[in-house]
Backbone:
């Protein structure tokens, strides 16, 4: 069974494990015509196997917030834009983890530098001129 992992608020936040961590901001937000774009490391799914073992994977999402009212979410990406797929993403110190930490615009393309399973680093390149995924969907 695969379902979203609900964020938990433990009594002692310093004792949180990777599996208990809620959404985290990955890169510095980017101001766009559609709002302030925030990259998130979240969207973790938890698969509980018949033998009782639990497998978790961490994916990257995006939200757009109103720069004038930062608590107002304007839109959110409906599907993760980055998720564990390669061998390096799925095998490592903490397997099945992708987390974006750097975002650079260079020659009209976006370069997102991300960690793979807490072991290696990689870069995902997005060309805004090329269509991608399901896009942002307005909230409300």
Residues:
């Amino acid at each position: 069974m695969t379902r979203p992992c609900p964020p938990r608020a433990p009594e002692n936040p310093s004792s949180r494990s990777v599996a208990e961590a809620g959404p985290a901001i990955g890169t510095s937000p980017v101001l766009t015509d559609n709002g302030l774009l925030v990259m998130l490391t979240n969207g973790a799914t938890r698969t509980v196997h018949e033998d009782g073992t639990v497998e978790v994977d961490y994916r990257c999402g995006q939200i757009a917030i109103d720069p004038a009212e930062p608590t107002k979410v304007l839109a959110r990406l409906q599907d993760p834009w980055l998720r564990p797929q390669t061998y390096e993403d799925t095998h490592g110190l903490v397997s099945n983890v992708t987390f974006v930490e750097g975002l650079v615009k260079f020659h009209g393309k976006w370069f997102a530098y991300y960690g793979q399973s807490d072991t290696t680093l990689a870069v995902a390149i997005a060309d805004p001129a090329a269509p991608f995924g399901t896009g942002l969907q307005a909230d409300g």
The helical segments are 87-90. Strands lie at 2-4, 24-25, 30-32, 35-48, 54-66, 69-77, 98-106, 109-116, 120-126, 136-138. The radius of gyration is 16 Å. The CA atoms of residues 107 and 127 lie 10 Å apart.
